[in-house]
């Protein structure tokens, strides 16, 4: 297997507060990994670094062969757009537009023409079981359906890496199970899936768990 994500002795500080210290880990291409730990443990900081949303204070973060500390902001944006999909606990859907437009606009910075984006968006929504909800706006969808729209938006452009931050946190258990099943299907199709969670049941659903405690990779 190919090492897709590599952190070597990574430290991250915010205004003198250490959020992550001496963190080293490797995630191979095609893995399904959960990162688990209590609130304030450093999980979100790790996601920010892996998602190229931030740079380390020291140490090395390599994503798909790129050392993120050496890339310009424009290059980091391009790497995110082409390689990484995000799913968040709060959905982050635009309230005034349809599910189709929410998913289509998620590919805005990939250089795909509008007609092609809409076609890919429709396919992605059908894939998550929402082919009958293309024209519905977020307020017309249940929480589970909104999270499925978020998964469709994150995966419509076929990213190499899917990062999900507490994707079941705002859902009932059945909807949460449905979302985790979707992520498992994406993993089986070859996507590298990383789920940040504090839920032990969600954590146990993945073949590999990475435990974070007090800013350190504990196991």
From TrEMBL:
Residues 5-219 form the ABC transporter domain. GO terms for cellular component: membrane protein complex; plasma membrane. It holds the Pfam family ABC_tran. One of its GO terms (molecular function) is transmembrane transporter activity. Keywords: ATP-binding, Nucleotide-binding, Transport. InterPro entries: AAA+_ATPase (IPR003593), ABC_transporter-like_ATP-bd (IPR003439), ABC_transporter-like_CS (IPR017871), ABC_transpr_LolD-like (IPR015854), MacB-like_ATP-bd (IPR017911), P-loop_NTPase (IPR027417). This is ABC transporter ATP-binding protein. It comes from Candidatus Lumbricidiphila eiseniae. The lineage of its organism: Bacteria, Bacillati, Actinomycetota, Actinomycetes, Micrococcales.
């Amino acid at each position: 297997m190919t090492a897709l994500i590599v952190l070597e002795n990574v430290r991250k500080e915010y205004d003198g507060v250490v959020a992550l210290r001496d963190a080293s880990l490797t995630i191979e291409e095609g893995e399904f990994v959960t990162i688990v730990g209590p609130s304030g443990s450093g999980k979100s900081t790790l996601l920010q670094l892996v998602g190229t949303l931030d740079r380390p204070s020291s140490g090395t973060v390599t994503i798909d062969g790129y050392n993120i500390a050496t890339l310009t902001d424009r290059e980091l944006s391009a790497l995110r757009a082409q390689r990484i999909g995000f799913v968040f606990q709060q959905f982050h859907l635009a309230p005034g537009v349809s599910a189709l437009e929410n998913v289509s606009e998620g590919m805005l910075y990939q250089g795909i023409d509008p007609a092609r984006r809409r076609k890919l968006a429709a396919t992605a929504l059908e894939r998550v079981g929402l082919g009958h909800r293309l024209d519905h706006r977020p307020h017309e969808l249940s929480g589970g359906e909104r999270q499925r729209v978020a998964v469709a938006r994150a995966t419509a452009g076929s990213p190499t890496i899917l990062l999900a931050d507490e994707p079941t946190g705002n859902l009932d258990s059945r909807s949460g199970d449905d979302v985790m099943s979707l992520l498992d299907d994406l993993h089986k199709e070859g996507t590298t899936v990383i789920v940040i969670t504090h839920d032990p049941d969600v954590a146990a659903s993945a073949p590999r768990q990475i435990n974070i405690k007090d800013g350190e990779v504990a196991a």
